[in-house]
Amino acid sequence: MARREIDCLLLGTGTSGALPSIACLTSPEKGCKCCRSTLDANDPLGRKNCGKTFYSGAVEWWPKKQLRQIDALILTHAHADAILGLDDLRGWTLRGAIQRSIPIYLTQHTFDEVSKAFPYLTNAGKVTGGGDVPALTWHIFDPDAPFQVAGIEVVPLPVHHGKYFTDPPTPFYCLGFLFDRQLAYLSDVSYIPPEIYRRVAQYVRLPFTSSSSSLSLLSNGNGNGNGNANGHGEEDEDDEEKPRLKALIVDCLRVEPFASHFGIGQAVETARRLGAERNYLVGFGHRTSHQLWLAATRALSLDAASSLLPPLPADMPISSSVPIPKPARDYLNYGGHADPTLEDEEQFVLHARWAVESWLKAAALPASEEKETCWIRPAVDGMTIRFGGGRETGDDEYEDEQQE
After folding, report:
1. In terms of pTM, does the model score above 0.85?
2. Per-residue pLDDT at 383
3. In CA terms, which of 101, 239, 327, 398 is 20 to 30 Å from 350?
């Protein structure tokens, strides 16, 4: 049965610190090629993965996409890049400019943190100055229970996003979401507990009969998921009755993993485990350009076992005991070139493949029941992913590729 039509517009596809980096823009000698390309009006790829400021993204893209009103806003967690745009919402609600109020959906923990950062947003008694603040209505949801937003089913997916620096360390949780059993959104993640895969499997058909995960290789804390409930009190459907995931939006900061973000190997493993028709990477750091990510994901989408790809060089061994291979020079995992103002696409693609093949070897994924290759591309600001309603899953950035 065809599910509803959904168009998903992406903004802020860069890292939390925003792209381009001010340090690079003001350093002609050492600024990375990725950031400095944004100064070139003739470079069509210069501003592909920018962000992460909501207001500037809305100013640029909403008029082009004919968007105006915000029906609801869902917060993933309380880090600065996820909540500091709340005050900018006054542009929508001040004196009813566009709407009287905006519904905000968040967990109790995130609400408490928002109250500390913006006391005047959650407590009218703490408004100062002229009183020009956003009009927001707050809706607290349980991170272990599905809920409805604007008629769309939303399933929270608590994942690790780094850790608390306590003794011993404990995981910091961020929420991903499954929307309408069609779109999985995992914007900030360093580890997915096995019970979250099992949660997803209650709603969509996964490509593996087992949902067990090897991601404890880089888990935060003790790697046991810290006990989020995996059940929602409903019966599992037969796999044949469940829909296949249409699209996955997943975190990928850089080639190698980071303490609070996926590297390319983890992102590809997640894509293969969830089996979406289309997979989009977000959250890129500034030292790697869109062109390099595009070249790498095109190669990875061919599948590392494909005869279309040459074998990795002998000095890039694949070992199940070394999930994170170390390049001879750090720059090989960023721009592929010793000079940060230049890039070497061939070297970057080789090192991205090495990272992915090493991680997948250590992950020991079972044989997939889906016979297709894993289609992966870098997301870009302003792109729209379209799916549902019987339509073929696609987007307006890679349309030409999909029609080939």
Report:
1. yes
2. 96
3. 398
Q: Percentage of the chain surpassing pLDDT 70?
A: 86
Residue 179 and residue 156: Cα distance in Å, rounded? 9
Residue 116 to residues 17, 82, 140, 188, 361, Cα–Cα distance (Å) = 21, 14, 16, 22, 44
Structural domain includes residue 31 = no
pLDDT tens column, 347-396: 999 999 999 999 999 998 875 555 567 999 999 999 999 999 999 999 99
305 and 175 both lie in a single domain? yes
Contacts 24+ apart (CB under 8 A), 220-224: 220/160, 220/162, 220/163, 220/169, 220/171, 220/172, 220/190, 220/191, 220/259, 221/160, 221/163, 221/168, 221/169, 221/170, 221/171, 222/168, 223/191, 224/193
**Residue-wise pLDDT tens digits, 198-251:** 999 999 999 875 544 544 443 333 333 333 334 454 445 677 789 999 999 999
What does each C-alpha distance from 96 to 1, 5, 45, 89 come to in angstroms? 40, 30, 38, 11
The set of residues, in sequence order, having a beta carbon less than 8 Å from that of 40 and lying 6+ positions away, is 46
The domain boundary, picked from 93, 112, 144, lies at 144
Q: Are residues 178 and 305 in the same domain?
A: yes
**What H or E segment, with its residue span, contains residue 296?**
helix 290-301
